[in-house]
Amino acid sequence: MAVTIDPVVFWERLSKLHKGWNAARDADGVWKGADALVIEAGEADEDRLYSKSQSMQQWLLGWEFPETVIVICSRSVHVLSSKKKVGHLEPLKKAENATLPLELLTRDKVDNTANYAALIQAVKDSHAGAVVGCLLKEDPKGDFAAKFRAALTAESGLQQVETAPGFADLLAVKDSTELACVKRASIFSAVVVQKFLVQQLESIVDEEKKISHEQLAADTEDAFSEPIKLGVKLSPDLLESCYSPIIQSGGNFNLKPSAASNGDMLYYGAITCSLGARYKSYCSNVGRTYLINPTKSQEKTYKLLLELQGEAIAALKSGAKLSSVMTAVVNRVKSKAPHLEKHLTKNCGFGTGIEFKEGALTLNAKCDVVARPGMVFNVALGFENVEDKEATDKRGKVYAVFLADTVLVSESGAAEVYSEKAPKQWADVSYYLKDNDGDEDDDEAGGSRGRRGEVEILETRTRRGGVSQTEKNETAEHLQSHQEELEEKMRLDALERIARQGGGGAAPSASVETPIAYRNPDHFPQTSSTGGSLKTNQTHVDGKNEALLVPMFGRLVPFHISTIKNVSKSEEGAFTHLRINFVAPGQSISSQQMPKEADPDAHFIRELSFKARQASNLNNTFRLIKELRKRVMAREKQQALEADLVVQEALQLIRTGKIHRLRDVNVRPTLGGKKQPGTLELHQNGLRFQAARGEKLDLTFKNIKLAFFQPAEKEIMVLIHFHLHDPIMIGKKKTKDVQFYVEVMEASYSLDNTRRSGYDPDELEEEQRERALRNRMNQEFQNFVKKVEEQNPACEFDIPYRELGFYGVPPHNKSTCFIMPAVNALVELTEPPWFVSPLNDIEVAHFERVVMGLKNFDMVLVLKDFSQKPIQVNSINVEHLDALKTWLDSCNIKFYEGPANLNWGSIMKHINEIGLEGFYDDGGWKFLNMHDSDDEDEEDPEDQESDFEPSGSEDEGEEDESDDSDFDDEVDSEEESEGEESLGSDESEGKDFDELEEEAKQEDKRRGHFEDQDEKPKTKKAKTRDQYSDDEDDRRGKSKPSSSKSSSSKPGSSRPGGSSKSSGSGGKVRR
Questions:
Q1: What is the reported pLDDT for 494?
Q2: What positions does the domain FACT complex subunit SPT16 N-terminal lobe occupy (predicted)?
Q3: Would you identify the CATH topology of the domain 7-172?
Q4: Which of 39, 349, 963, 1027 could staple 379 via S-S, CB 3.0–4.6 A?
């Protein structure tokens, strides 16, 4: 991290120090009459967490500068340090708010005698030059500080005095910036206690685990590195633990802040816990006691302690001596429980800040310091080694209770408790466990703990139940109440959208231009029956005008190539047959491919057939039609891809200065079709990825809708993912999602090469290398993410919540994937095609197949844009249902649930037809409440999905052909790519009805089908095959039994063995 020093803060605080020192420089004051002040720091010492020299450097500079001497004189300030550190301090000399001359001396690596002499001379020139204030109790590490102190001591006429109390008094009162840091640290400490430590304790006791105090303390300290998992948005780089958390139980208690967790196993009795977080070097502290099956005496002792801490906080007022706090506490103990006075801690806490413990501000009976607004104290007190006469085992005979909070002395009089988010009332810290092993005699005894049967479950949690039934009911009631509020809010938001859009109807569909081959007769080619011009008795393909010319009654009639559905050629005897099928109503094709009907009574040509003895013309026409169709379809596909592309702003490159880079990363989708590593660069208004072969990909911040950072925890890769507002072209693909990643381990291993044992040194070394690579890449990606956020604060990266993740089958993916909620979206970013569903786009969620006994359910997310197809996530384990409901409710998303899969194609079509206004007038989404059996009867039970099928509800047979329009283009393009076989696959077209009927009957007999399909019961296999569309069956080459909703005797119905259609302009075949 780059070292930057705020000149405003530096000079403001230095001026505060300078004025305070000059104003109280008398010999009896905290500065001991010092004529100059010296702050000397030796080499970095990891064993020393806190010192006055480090605290003063942090306070002035915001950084720790080892091997640095600062001398503050009456009219100047002098600093001796290394060349690099002097460079960081150089801008301070030119600051606008500089109040004193700043002299910078560069440390000599060999001999600093001249530098020491210059500093001593500055001391002599300050005031009387006889007394120098130093931090005499500190012992700096290294030769540099030792030699300077020796030179200072050797100087005659200079008296050294201790000025640590002066610096402590200076740091005691904090400004608003410092108080904000303390408050954040305190809140995080309280959150760690409540959301991690308490939950760990409950889990340990509930599952009867065995864990040592040291291990539990280490696990708690590890939680400091991932604040986002606790719901706290603080940078982990700015957070650290003030000390290793202290966990004590089982009779061995030490309530001093210097205590440590031992290796004894946790005892289910009185458990004291204390921890402190440090944010931007400012400390905090929280201490709590949790009691398992407490006795009556323990309850009385704890409630007394709670009262005493309240007394101490109340006594901590501006203008009061700190000794009055201890006096008030002792007086209350003497009056209420004099036998506990000897067990009371020796003080009630101490001042805190950059240093965890400020000895000069200890809350004991001897401290005469007056409390001032802006002071922060760790109010900590307890009863230690109290004997419990009601205990039944040895480890429970002695116990302790302890409470600690970070408290601010405010101007208004009442102190403010920063760490109040960690509850400490009796109901929050006491646990009464059920014990099913107790016998009737023990229960009759009563009055004792544990096995003697006292089981109070009034406001506490139980071991067997996890959460009490009362709490479950309250949670359910709160969820239901909030969902009702969301339903009303959703209705009002929808009405607002209607008013804003000027109506609730569906948007008009875009008109399709009529294809035109020749705009005027002059463009028509010259024809003749003989000669060099086009012959009127032959077919011709005009590639320039994209038209097919066919002979009719002695004339060439043009057809635009886009009106041709397919063409086939066959040889029958001496003749060659060319059959051309046209696009017409009544076919299972996309409505967007339909030519515009200028006249509702218009007639369409379905088919043209030609035969000739000479095959050359028909063969040439067949080839040219295929080539022209392929070219036209490729062009139209490209135009469709680029239709909604938006011109992006140019990337503003950083020409001078440091460019932050992420090297050796891969991009998906790939640029050139092949995986190749490259470098991701951060520029002024976006990012640039440059591959090794020179290809470039630019992303601007304005086009980034959502950004995600997913570290490699249980995945094989670490990645950053961008979901865009407008799609971009990467190669020949249009995409709204771009991902940059690095694989940190192999996705698969060769079994032939894996013959080593689990404890083989090479195997262990390989695992260590993988672990080191994963940690390094996670850190590199995290650092790059921070740089991006600093460059553009609007681009905030979201980290998915792994603990809330679940397995399911997302749309566009046929396999089960691990889907994770994030702050702004529901995502699956590891396996392409990726799944990113922004929460702001979701109107309502619906859980389907929620039936007692089923292990899986489906989730449908209906988008606010009703023209888009709802998103369906299938096959989610039912154990995640409650967690998903709670998460959706916390995101203010209304949800419903029902026992059946719904036909969302028909539902959304109906909503778009009646419009939003009419839809909400009819009750809106309330019809999704399908808890009654009457609702289930509305749907055919044979249409219900089995619990193992991942999808299919959107492929119901009753859907209109318009519902499949999204897929028809893809199917048709695949048919064309299959060559001549595809073009000739629809040979049944063009035959009259009698021929089609006869073929169908013969096929039915050969396959053993019933004449009437309604007489034959459906099977699971038939149901599955029914879900495919006609075009899909033709492409797959499979025969499909007709549905029970279409009789085999009806003209135009679908037949086994082919897609039989009448050659007339018949209506659409209903399945």
A1: 77
A2: 5-167
A3: Creatine Amidinohydrolase; Chain A, domain 1 (3.40.350)
A4: 349
Here the tokens at position 813 are 């993916």
Contact 92, 11 (CB under 8 A): yes
Do domains 176-431 and 533-594+604-643+975-987 share one topology? The answer is: no
Q: Which of the listed ranges 461-470, 515-524, 669-678, 888-897 does the model predict with the highest average pLDDT?
A: 888-897
Compute the distance between CA of residue 254 and CA of residue 262 in angstroms, rounded to an integer. Answer: 11
β-strands 894-897, 842-848 pairing: parallel
Q: Mean pLDDT, the chain, as a whole number?
A: 80
| Rounded-to-integer distance, Cα 312 and Cα 363, Å | 9
Sequence-distant (≥ 6) Cβ neighbours of residue 971 within 8 angstroms? 1029, 1031, 1032, 1035
CATH of 176-431, one of 2.30.30.40, 3.90.230.10, 3.40.50.10490, 3.40.50.1370: 3.90.230.10
The encoded tokens of residue 361 equal 């501000």
Residue type, 266: L
Residue 50 pLDDT: 84
State the residue for tokens 């030059």: 129
Is the distance from CB of 352 to CB of 283 less than 8 angstroms?
yes
SS3 504: coil
SS3 sequence, 890-945? HCCCEEEECCCCCCHHHHHHHHHHHHHHHHHHCCHHHHHCCCCHHHHCCCCHHHCC
> SS3 for 84?
helix
Long-range contacts of 1018-1027 (CB under 8 A, 24+ apart): 1018/942, 1018/1044, 1020/946, 1023/942, 1024/949, 1024/952, 1026/957, 1026/1071, 1027/952, 1027/955, 1027/956, 1027/957
Q: Which is higher by pLDDT, 973 or 691?
A: 691
C-alpha angle 54-56-59 in degrees, rounded to nearest 5: 110
Question: Do residues 881 and 850 make contact, with C-beta atoms less than 8 angstroms apart?
Answer: yes
Which tens digits make up the pLDDT trace of 478-499? 888 888 888 888 888 877 777 7
Residue 1056 pLDDT greater than 70, yes or no = no
At residue 76 the predicted structure's pLDDT band, cuts being 50, 70 and 90, is: very high
* Size of the chain, expressed as the number of residues it contains: 1071
- Rounded CA separation 25/180 (Å): 31
* Pick among 2.30.29.30, 3.40.1190.20, 3.40.190.10, 3.40.50.2300: CATH of 800-956: 2.30.29.30
Q: Under a CB-based contact definition with an 8 Å cutoff, are residues 339 and 353 in contact?
A: no
The average pLDDT across 657-681 equals: 88
Please state whether 875 falls in left (phi above 0), alpha (psi between -120 and 50) or beta: left
pTM of the model: 0.47
Least confidently predicted of 14-23, 245-254, 1013-1022: 1013-1022
Q: 413-419 long-range contacts, Cβ below 8 Å, gap at least 24?
A: 413/317, 413/318, 414/314, 414/317, 415/313, 415/314, 415/316, 415/317, 417/313, 418/182, 418/183, 418/186, 418/187, 418/284, 418/376, 419/186, 419/187, 419/189, 419/190, 419/284, 419/285, 419/286
Backbone angles phi, psi at 354, to 5 degrees: -65, -40
Supply φ then ψ for residue 815, to 5 degrees: -115, 160
> If one looks up domain 655-748+760-789 in CATH, what number appears?
2.30.29.150
pLDDT at residue 383 is higher than 70 = yes
Domain ranges of the chain: 7-172, 176-431, 432-473, 533-594+604-643+975-987, 655-748+760-789, 800-956, 1000-1071
Q: How far apart are CA 951 and CA 939, in angstroms?
A: 17
Q: What residues are paired with 620 via a beta bridge? A: none
Q: Which CATH architecture has domain 533-594+604-643+975-987?
A: Roll (2.30)
Cβ neighbours for 304, distance < 8 A, ≥ 6 positions apart: 333, 336, 337, 340
DSSP β-ladder status, 856-863 and 376-387: unpaired
Residue 655: CB atoms within 10 Å: 8
Has residue 942 got a pLDDT over 50? no
